[in-house]
Amino acid sequence: MSWIRAVITGVLVVAVAFLLLVVVPDQILNISGMSRSTKVLYATVEFSVALALMLYGLRRLQQRRLL
What we know:
Number of domains: 1
Helix content: over 70%
Distance between the termini: 9 Å
Radius of gyration: 15 Å
Strand content: under 5%
Number of helices: 2
Order of helices and strands: HH
């Protein structure tokens, strides 16, 4: 794998991780019309599911030698 592809892949993985694990839960917490405990529950569930799916996806990419 060339170093350019490695850099691009690394940047994409970090960007997707930041989006799924920081931005989306923050947007959930800023929704109006729900109680705080409901928003925290949704943000926590989204974070946990996103983390699990990212770990699974990264492992699959490693098995296929794409990372």
